[in-house]
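Task: complex structure prediction.
Instruction: return structure tokens for all chains below.
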Amino acid sequence: MPELTYLQAISDGLRTEMRRDKRVFVIGEDVGVYGGAFKVTLGFQEEFGHWRVIDAPLAETAIVGACTGAAIMGMRPVAEMQFADFISCAWDHLVTVAAKQRWRAGTAVPITVRLPSGGGFSGGPFHSQNPESSFAHIPGLKCICPATPEDAKGLLISAIQDPNPCLYFEHKHLYRRIKAEVPEERYTVPLGKARTHQEGDDVTVVTWGAMVYTATEAAQQIDDLSVEIIDLRTVMPWDKAAVLESVRKTSKVLVLHEDTRTGGFGAEIAATIAEEAFEELDAPVKRIAAPDTPVPFSPQLEKAFIPQVDDVAAGLRELAEY
Amino acid sequence: VAIAQRAEPVGSLREVRDAGLDREDLLQVYRNMVLTRGIEERGHILYRQGKIPGSFYTGRGNEAAAVGVATAMGSDDVGTPLHRDMGVHVTRGVEPWRIFAQYMGRVDGPTHGRDGNVHMADANLGLIAMVSHLPAMLPVAVGCALAFRIREEKRVSVAWFGEGASARGDTHEGMTLGGVRKLPVVFVCDNNQWAYSTPTHLEFATEHVADRAQSYGFEGIVVDGTDVLAVYREAKRAIEKARAGGGPTLIECLTLRMEGHAVHDDAFYVPKQMFEEWAKSDPIERFRSWLRENAEMTDDEEDAVSADVKKLLNDALRRAEESPLPDPSQLGEGVYATPEDLDTPHHK
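Output:
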């Protein structure tokens, strides 16, 4: 199996589907000639032509709205937001049109929106956000947050073939930093099925995206604690059964995410554990998330914003000692 | 200073034939307009009887604009009609009883009681259901045209929007994308001169909405929206131009919204003389007299249309009232689509 970076795995998944399925096309800002701001679609226009790799005007509303129309007409559009932050400009088209069209009018909208998200490199308030919780709240949308190269490819293919609007949050900090073996052939990873990143008996960490690695490093810092790390893979639908099963095993839970705390998806997970596994718990559910501020620019401030390995290690110790 | 062209009125039967309609077609157009108004008048009665929950919207005054454009569409073309465009649904062949069922929130309405008023469409008729956020369906229609262009199909998409919604960014972005890619889309602005209570001079600073077309790189044309034949001719020209690869056109149909924004609104802010002036060019009456003068429509033919529409509506109302209310236990079904949901005339 070839070793691919997380970014190469995304490209590989997209290319695989475009070769296999003529209905798939890519539209976004600078995705064609330039190959995308992060080069995910580098070389795509040469291979697939400029009507399947479409350089769009700087118009997120038109990009996502047009994807909706094209999807209803039988295509499988993949939109790229240059940064996940810019999805706010297309909120209406996802939330008002695409998310509700199946339920109210019987018209499925099979679109995928790729969202380079997350911080860690001084992107500042408008190039670093993790907006998955906002969309997980909207009935009709699916939210996908791969952590590994293998999942990045398999989940993207699943998203493209899914008959619903799928938001695919690809974490920028993982793009070139994470490398692993990825099967060459086409495969899918089911949406809504969590992955046990690491097995353990004492404490469960429920997380997704780049925080999977933060949790892993934190767990390594504490020798005498056996930590189970559940990588949700998809935030909507989310694998409640896998989380509850792990909670029943360890009886202590840390919910970790890079998005801000209040109303973040971690709150939903914590509430569900409280409702459905309260009697299994040996400690209150702990949440570690970003503080309720915009994402800061200066490295010192950004470090204080994004949960760090030491923060998670401290949280794990606290749970262990409870 | 106006930039858009103004369409000439249509004169003789021969001119109409040249545009593609024979006498039988014309009678059908007339029937569609009468049926459109009939559906909304009956809807109004249902509302006053307390049988329609929520609010109720009509397109009185817009019948010619809606029917004229829809008549010019090909059977494989698609569109996103809005709440003043009942005539589009009628012309494409919607069954009136299903509209009444929709109005009343019954299970046989196209949205099965999940959405109200004209927030509906039949995929079999090439239509996509609107949302309240206007003109959100405009970029969607551009996307339909994009699909046709990618697949090199000779199909056209029609995007309706109101002059009020022309202020929103969706209009600008959709027209920009349609323009730069020369997509087979026709933008139809129903300019009924009032965005709820806001008059046009507070909505846009140009003389016409269609004046903007030039800045997007395509043609803009203003047409009298009460003249069904002129609307048809301009729409036909624009649709065939788009089909042939000539890119978008912006057609502005100028009308007056002859009722309030919705039934609760008495439109006190519209000057009385404005209503009086526009009442003189009622689209249905106008076309009726044209048919009498230019196409020798007889009393018998006219009566046949009235009787046919009346019977259709009576039957439709009866059938819709028999339709059951939706079952609350099914509320959660269909939030997410299954692969089977892609088996529609649209998605194929």
